Amino acid sequence: MPRCRYTESMFLTRRFKHCPSCGGQIQYQVPADDNRERACCTVCGSIHYENPINVVGTLPVWGDQVLLCRRAIEPRHGLWTLPAGFMELGETTAQGALRETDEEAGAQIELQNLYCVHNVVKVGQVHLFYRARLLSTEFNPGPETLEARLFHEHEIPWDEIAFHTVRETLQRFFEDRRLGRDFSLHSADIG
Amino acid sequence: MPRCRYTESMFLTRRFKHCPSCGGQIQYQVPADDNRERACCTVCGSIHYENPINVVGTLPVWGDQVLLCRRAIEPRHGLWTLPAGFMELGETTAQGALRETDEEAGAQIELQNLYCVHNVVKVGQVHLFYRARLLSTEFNPGPETLEARLFHEHEIPWDEIAFHTVRETLQRFFEDRRLGRDFSLHSADIG
């Protein structure tokens, strides 16, 4: 997750003050054909919408081990995460998940099914994790990662996992594996 | 889909000219710790990210019929769609799908599984459709809908479907039903 731009206080910090089109003053009000407050320009009249964004990532697996990355950036510097980050314009969810896995872990993978869709309402995010098969155990972490390594289930540093959605994805994976389930889609709402 | 704000030309139309924080001039450039162009303010230095957004909706089913809505708004006025619209801040994907089904069709439903996740890269959108069980056949369409009605498979107006992702979702549903499959998650990349 490359940047620290959306935090728990995002509902305050991301609010518009000026119109991105004309620079005029923004006033939050309910437009005529709408039912909620929007960023409306008092000069040119344009309306600017704010919507949840997607975080896309992977759960890379090698035998009975999974790949985690230790974060070199805030938030949660030093804690462990699955490779993931903000989905960009011009890519699919799968392409974004592959890109983040390359950028953060330098890991070669084969993407499998979309495994987890987790809503994190309080920060306006949806986290989508794909299962992935590691093609090698050589990793080449980027600048956002201190260390990338494989973990057996009993080695997972549960108290040092960076994000709720990562913990949820890992827990579900080990549970599915233990019960011989087929790793079908898991949805959850987080906090 | 309530508003016509994201069209095929969105990559041009949504680009920032002024900084939403200070109103200063925006210049698109690659920030020091990044690898793609962002909207950077030449005055206050803040960076404004643009990401894909989610459209959430449902495939409401009554026996062997499905519910479609005829659009009262552009784009695709007069064409048929599943109830769907832009996901809002403060809600989950499921809550958004329920809300849109209420707003566009006035239909009472019980939400089932997340059924389709379709990437529409050229407009920077991800469309998520849930299967839903209709609890009654009384509909109360909102102002964005000319008509809401049930269709048997052979009645579907395939040439008058508003969006590729709706057609894809319907085709998959009838195929799954014909083959006795379990309606597990379907992913596709559209156009």
Describe the structure.
Two copies of one chain form a homodimer. Chain A is an alpha+beta fold and 191 residues long. Chain A is 17% helix and 34% strand. The two termini of chain A are 19 Å apart. Residues 1-10 of chain A have low confidence and may be disordered. At the A-B interface, strand 3 and strand 8 of A face strand 3 and strand 8 of B.
Q: What is the CA–CA distance across the termini of chain A?
A: 19 Å
Strand percent estimate of chain A: 25-35%
Q: Count helical runs of chain A.
A: 3
Rg calc of chain A: 19 Å
Shape of chain A: elongated
Oligomer status: homodimer
Structural class of chain A: alpha+beta
Poorly predicted regions of chain A are 1-10
Written as H for each helix and E for each strand, in order along the chain, the element string of chain A is HEEEEEEEHEEEHE
Q: How many strands in all of chain A?
A: 11
Largest interface: A-B, 48 and 48 residues
Largest sheet data of chain A: 8 strands, mixed
Mean pLDDT of chain A: 93
Helix content of chain A: 10-25%
